[in-house]
Design goal:
Layout (H helix, E strand, L loop, with lengths): L6 H21 L5 H6 L7 H25 L4 H17 L3 H32 L6 H18 L7 H14 L3 H17 L8 H23 L5 H35 L2
Length: about 260
């Protein structure tokens, strides 16, 4: 007779299925029509300028900006919400109580998508592309930080910074690169330690390069007044993609930690 799966095991199976769907969807994803049309119009040095802008933004936030980002939301409120959900899940071990964490994370993510869209479109109308990079990076990190808090994780410490940077890098990858980077994320979930070769500045460069590669044409377009609205809209498109992947991985981390605790 087959043993019935527990609510926790069912939720783990659900998140694994959604992970597989994410990988499958983006594995063979082609470059957008707009990107192909703009390819010949973007100046040669624009990629390197964008790389540099993203790298500086990440470095600045990690060095001095976390406190500023925390002023845009209540860390204590998110932690309190997590503890309330944790108490309910401990009292009633059901799929409904386990999904409460996911609902809160999705709610915060939705608000940040609105912020990103308004910010991107507004600057696009004015013809501002590159100067909005620090703001966009701050919104990305704010979104991931809030996701972490809803699942009971902090975002300070080098291990957490690596995890966050790797999530962003992997979320925007395609093909075999997506599979390879996803495996690196899985290794971190299993071991919870930094790779031996890890250096923060190198990981920042890798993540920044992936962001600039994906947003290259949109940021160029965003620098053109009025037409830049299209580029600005894509800020929320890419943020949504990053958030979908980040929420999957934080949820999986949360569920696996609970499974580990229950097996002790």
């Amino acid at each position: 007779m087959l043993k019935r799966k527990t609510p926790l095991e069912k939720e783990i199976a659900s998140v694994v299925k959604k992970e597989e769907e994410y990988i499958r969807k983006h594995y063979e994803e082609n470059e957008s029509f707009i990107n192909r049309k703009l390819e010949e119009k973007v100046p040669e040095n624009f990629q390197s300028r964008l790389d540099s802008a993203f790298s500086k933004a990440f470095a600045l936030v990690f060095q001095k900006g976390t406190g500023v980002i925390e002023k845009t939301y209540s860390k204590e409120k998110h932690q309190r919400s997590y503890m309330e959900n944790e108490e309910l899940a401990a009292e009633r071990n059901t799929r409904k109580t386990l999904r409460a964490f996911k609902k809160n994370a999705a709610r915060s993510g939705g608000k940040n998508l609105v912020i990103s869209g308004v910010e991107g479109v507004g600057l696009g109308l004015l013809g501002i592309g590159l100067p909005d990079i620090p703001v966009f990076v701050a919104v990305i990190l704010k979104s991931v930080y809030e996701t972490a808090l809803h699942y009971g994780y902090d975002y300070e410490g080098e291990e957490e910074r690596y995890f966050i940077l790797k999530l962003i890098e992997t979320a925007l990858s395609r093909g075999s690169s997506l599979e390879e980077k996803n495996k690196a994320v899985e290794i971190f979930l299993e071991k919870r330690t930094l790779p031996e070769s890890y250096r923060r500045d190198e990981q920042i460069e890798l993540t920044s390069s992936m962001l600039s590669k994906e947003l290259l044409y949109m940021k160029f377009l965003q620098g053109i007044p009025v037409a830049g609205v299209i580029g600005g809209i894509y800020d929320s498109v890419y943020l949504n993609r990053i958030l979908r992947y980040a929420r999957l991985k934080y949820r999986k981390r949360f569920l696996l930690d609970r499974l580990h605790e229950s097996n002790k």
